[in-house]
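Hi U.,

Before I forget, here's the chain from the pilot set. I'm dumping it here mostly so it's searchable later in email.
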Amino acid sequence: MTIATQRKLPISWHVVALIGAVHVGALMAFLPGNFRWSGLALAIVLHWVTGGLGITLGWHRLVSHRSFQVPKWLEYFFVFCGTLSMQGGPTWWVGLHRHHHLYSDQNVDQHDSNKGFWWSHMGWMLHEVPALKDIARYTKDIANDPVYRFFDNYFLPLQIALGLVLYLIGGWPFVLWGIFVRLVLVYHCTWLVNSATHMFGYKSHESHDNSRNCWWVALLTYGEGWHNNHHAFQYSARHGLKWWEFDMTWIMIRTLQACGLAKKVKLPMADSSR
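Structure:
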């Protein structure tokens, strides 16, 4: 499939409408009367819960790469947090991520960075994604789990339920900041890992793709910006490998390990799995 063919894929209008509505809702938060410092604080906390604990720690390092293990109830909690990021269901997300690692920056990679920043950042998801037909091949470990299936089917109603709770607590400003602003921030932080870290930064290892270590993306995404390290050692729970490569998610994993909740933590050394 050529670049031109890929970009002529049919547009997924429901995705365009959803993402567009979320961005419009976020802009509404900045209208007079809707700004609240408490709303901003809420957005930041929920960004960490859904983007940090959910996507980065849960969907990515725990489930997609199985770089460590936690009790099943805790895994489900992290997967639930990721579901509230409204980036599709966990099975869909994990399957596409595993596909990306198999074909990183090749033409069949859904967000191949060789097709440009816009395409790898978000343009690819506004079209039909051919790799979706292969999801079952890459998610055999979770596809039949009833909890994962529930989150796959009800991620949108769960978001609406969260919005209702926030409305009851703080009215529309809490909904605007806790749902719409927070989702926009989580979206673009996640998407920067697909785009910016395949274009900006430095390479520490040969990963046979365009992945880079980008410090500012690492700060925005709880350590995901050390992307060249990750592509070189996909199984590693730690992405920031140098002492100065700050990796907030690695600190969280170490905290879980100290509490006896994280086991078999994998690192890029032969004798470090425990």
